[in-house]
């Protein structure tokens, strides 16, 4: 084999892992928690015009997934379940679904690999964990941030907040309606736009 063949092999390997193990399969009667804790317009685009992530982004997402696996093997021995599906019925046969990273009878744990550990948990991560705490009826939740550059980590405790869950439910209805009507939600501009695959078409007039 030549150098180019190995590069192709690596690219295909990452692509295979991403599409077989990570990329979500969407159902029109289901709204996923991760879709409503990020920009709704981005979630709309993800469903209406999915874009294959560039290889480097697939690698980053795959590394994040592998860090989860590292925890999974050990925490399962300690009584945790991994990738637990949480469901919450909404109106009009719509269901809100999310997958909590790890859960036992006492709490839920979300694991986030980041380039820099924040001084307090990021709002979209808190919203996600809080939703799982409601859907799975757990009072306590923890976010573990792992610094994938230098190996540091930090743990933040979160308590259930009903108002935050109400916001998630409201956003699930908003996204569902936007998808049904084919009408993109408003932009939710933030620093996360820098990492959004749709930033070029986000403001295009034809939309
Ligand atoms: S660029 Fe920003 S506002 Fe536009 S879809 Fe992406 S995340 Fe949303």
Observed structural traits:
globular, 6 helices, binds iron/sulfur cluster, six-stranded mixed beta sheet, 6 strands, alpha/beta, Lambda Exonuclease, Chain A
Report what the structure shows:
With 207 residues, the chain is an alpha/beta fold. It has a single domain, classed as Lambda Exonuclease, Chain A (Alpha-Beta Complex). 43% of the residues lie in helices and 21% in strands. The protein has 6 helices and 6 strands, in the order αβαααβββαββα. Strands 1, 2, 3, 4, 5 and 6 form a 6-stranded mixed sheet that branches. Strand 5 (140-147) and strand 6 form a beta hairpin. Helix 1 (3-22) crosses helix 4 (55-77). The model has no long low-confidence stretch (mean pLDDT 89). The structure holds iron/sulfur cluster. The site of iron/sulfur cluster (SF4) has 12 residues, from helix 3.
Q: How are the elements arranged and paired?
A:
Elements: H1 3-22, E1 30-32, H2 33-37, H3 40-48, H4 55-77, E2 81-89, E3 95-103, E4 107-114, H5 123-135, E5 140-147, E6 153-159, H6 162-181
Parallel strand pairs: 1-3, 4-5
Antiparallel strand pairs: 2-3, 3-4, 5-6
Helix pairs in contact: 1-4, 3-6, 5-6
This protein binds iron/sulfur cluster (SF4).
Class by SSE composition: alpha/beta
Number of domains: 1
Residue share in helix = 40-55%
Per DSSP E runs of 2 or more residues, the count of β-strands stands at 6
Q: Report the C-alpha radius of gyration, rounded.
A: 18 Å
Distance between the termini: 46 Å
* Low-pLDDT runs: none
Largest sheet: 6 strands, mixed
Under the CATH scheme, which architecture would be assigned?
Answer: Alpha-Beta Complex
CATH fold call: Lambda Exonuclease, Chain A
Shape: globular
Beta-strand proportion: 15-25%
CATH class assignment: Alpha Beta
Taken in chain order, the helices and strands follow as: HEHHHEEEHEEH
| pLDDT averaged residue by residue | 89
H/I helix tally: 6
Q: What ligand species are in this complex?
A: iron/sulfur cluster
């Amino acid at each position: 084999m030549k150098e180019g063949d190995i590069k192709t092999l690596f690219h295909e390997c990452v692509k295979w892992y991403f599409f077989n193990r990570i990329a979500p399969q969407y159902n029109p009667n289901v709204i996923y928690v991760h879709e409503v804790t990020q920009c709704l317009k981005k979630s709309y685009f993800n469903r209406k015009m999915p874009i294959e992530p560039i290889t480097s982004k697939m690698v980053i997402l795959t590394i994040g997934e592998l860090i989860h696996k590292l925890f999974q093997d050990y925490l399962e021995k300690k009584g945790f379940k991994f990738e637990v599906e949480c469901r919450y019925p909404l109106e009009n046969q719509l269901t809100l679904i999310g997958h909590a990273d790890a859960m036992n009878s006492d709490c839920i744990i979300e694991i986030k690999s980041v380039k820099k550990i924040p001084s307090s948990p990021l709002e979209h991560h808190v919203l996600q964990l809080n939703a799982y705490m409601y859907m799975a009826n757990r009072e306590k939740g923890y976010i573990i941030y792992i610094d994938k550059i230098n190996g540091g980590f930090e743990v933040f405790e979160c308590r259930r907040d009903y108002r935050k869950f109400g916001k998630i439910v409201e956003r699930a209805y908003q996204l569902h309606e936007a998808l049904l009507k084919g009408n993109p939600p408003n932009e939710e501009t933030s620093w996360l736009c820098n990492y959004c695959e749709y930033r070029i078409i986000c403001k295009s007039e034809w939309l």
